[in-house]
Fold this sequence. Notes:
Elements: H1 4-10, E1 14-23, E2 31-40, H2 46-58, E3 63-71
Amino acid sequence: MASAEFRLQLMGYGLTTAHILYRMPDHPKILQSYVWQNYDMAPDFPELSRFLDFWKAKIDGALHSVDVAHKRLIGPSEWKKVDASFLVH
C-alpha cells in the first residue's frame, strides 16, 4: 500500500517550504526565524494558509514576512523522439 505522502503527490500536491520571520513578543525589534514544511497545492497553498491563520490567532509573535518555495515531486516524464537506432556488436 502506498504512503499518504505518495497519494498526495499523485493528487498534485508538492513539497512546500515556508521561511517565516516573526517579531519576538517581548522584544518586537528582534526577528526570529521559523521553517514550516508540508505537502501543499500551488498556487493557492491551502495548508500554508491554514497554518498562518492559526499562527495569527494563537501565537503572540507578529508575522514579519513569509518566503515560500514549492516543488512538485511527481510530474510528466521527459522523453525524446529517436530518429534512428544503431546496432552495436
